[in-house]
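Support request, please re-run this one:
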Amino acid sequence: MKVSINDTRCQGHARCIYFAPEVFEIDDEGYAKVKPGFETVPPELEDKVRKACANCPELSIVVTE
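Re-run finished. Output below.
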């Protein structure tokens, strides 16, 4: 599974960090981004990333299976 953030949609709600803090972080401007090295999600974190994606109010998390 691969994950990315659509920068034009993210509004900085940070729900992704709540669900998958291992994978997401907030940048200096207050928007979410994928931590370096986690663009390909480790299998043990896939469920957390799916929950983060499902809870993003702006639908800015892009998951590719």
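The first helix runs from residue 15 to 19. The chain has a mean pLDDT of 97.
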